[in-house]
Amino acid sequence: MMKKFTINSYDKQFNLKEFKPDDTAELSKQDIKKEYDKLQEKFIELQEVFYASKKYGLLIILQGMDCSGKDGTVKKVLTGVSPNGFNVENFKAPTPEELGRDYLWRTHNKTPMKGDITVFNRSYYEDVLVTRVHKDIDDETAFSRFREINEFEKYLVNNNTIVLKFFLNISKEFQQRKLENRLESPEKNWKFSEADLKERKFWDKYQECYSDVLSNCSTKEAPWYVIPADHRWFRDYIVLKTIVKTIEELDLEYPLIEGNIQELIQELKKN
Amino acid sequence: MMKKFTINSYDKQFNLKEFKPDDTAELSKQDIKKEYDKLQEKFIELQEVFYASKKYGLLIILQGMDCSGKDGTVKKVLTGVSPNGFNVENFKAPTPEELGRDYLWRTHNKTPMKGDITVFNRSYYEDVLVTRVHKDIDDETAFSRFREINEFEKYLVNNNTIVLKFFLNISKEFQQRKLENRLESPEKNWKFSEADLKERKFWDKYQECYSDVLSNCSTKEAPWYVIPADHRWFRDYIVLKTIVKTIEELDLEYPLIEGNIQELIQELKKN
């Protein structure tokens, strides 16, 4: 099933229109409940051995339009995971200091240490998305950045940082419903800004730019996953399943303790 | 009840021996269950308005001996809290780059932005604890640092960063049981190092140094809380209660939205 959402062909032009935001692979929330609970338990176990073994870093990139549920995904998928060795980095509009440097600098600075899992809520992909939509960079620059990003990710993977990239794919109608709900709730409407309305007008352009990202930045080393995100439960399920599968395949083990355990216990009892 | 665990007198010499690590204020786990669940819900609500209002930063400092449950406290108390605006910073042995600077540099660099809650798992207090126990600094330096730390915290509070300091107080017997459990579990014994045994030999010296910290670095602006931590449920309860009370007293409100909500909804429906 996962194959359907995985893009790892580099020579094909993908169009986001081919992907249904409300896809649930003919499953219902009830169908996956048991499996989802098990996945959560499994993830908590796996994260411990991942942290303990200190062999790899795991970088999880979340991208998506406003209201696609990047925050919600982090919150849901990572419930119960130990904060030790787990970080979330939010990348908002760059500061002058960040803009003064090359565009990979601020994100590279936050990539995970070995043993750690780091989620990027937005990432360097904004530097070929929002900037391109608003014509701060031209197409030539965008395509040159695609190549640089591919090289950068290949470098990370070669140096034991695993890269998982999730595009949370919602429909324009879904965004409208969410923005309306946001406006109507006194506890949520502070999140709303007129900029949201303005960005929404660029919806089609964003979809094109995302299609280019998927087509040009899906590599064997770091494929993109297009996650149907109109249904939150399905979004959480596919994201979690992908993370669990990725860590499981590493087949990690707890490091062995140095010294003799019984002797250490005796020593401990002495003082 | 909280008063019992709060140190906010600056002119008295405190001794850790006066505080019982297994204190539960004559309560049982069952007695507080309902209140605890409500506190958790309340905290999740409060964190949202804290983040939205962007008036204060909240710095939570956790200190304690090995096995005192610093990681566990973070994990338990913060279940369900949004990772947006919530950070945990672990301070281990300083790097050469960090040692090349003044001792407050690396922690100051990580203090919370307005709207954020940041937990320091260990902190600049290590620079008057582990360094003093092992005689890397003399008593004069330690006392001079106490004054500097007080001034630093006063400065933070004056600039809208709230500082909560929790000392997780365990008994020596409790630590022994925990270390034994750690050694006996194949999934946990990788955490054990001979250094744990060596540090344990300095137990009494650490208790003295902690007593000095409590006596000299409890201020009106930033008191220490001594949390009985032999019982995990009581530890979590008191820490959470203190955090909730602190944020509640700020009486924060969601910011008002700019513009007319009905007009914005109409605008939204147009595209």
Automatic annotation (TrEMBL), chains A, B:
GO terms for biological process: polyphosphate metabolic process. Residues 27-250 form the Polyphosphate kinase-2-related domain. Residues 22-49 form a coiled coil. The lineage of its organism: Bacteria, Bacillati, Bacillota, Clostridia, Eubacteriales. NCBIfam families: PPK2_rel_1 (TIGR03709). This is Polyphosphate kinase 2. PANTHER family: POLYPHOSPHATE:AMP PHOSPHOTRANSFERASE, POLYPHOSPHATE:AMP PHOSPHOTRANSFERASE-RELATED. Keywords: Coiled coil, Kinase, Transferase. It holds the Pfam family PPK2. The keyword Transferase applies. The keyword Chloroplast does not apply. GO terms for molecular function: polyphosphate kinase activity.
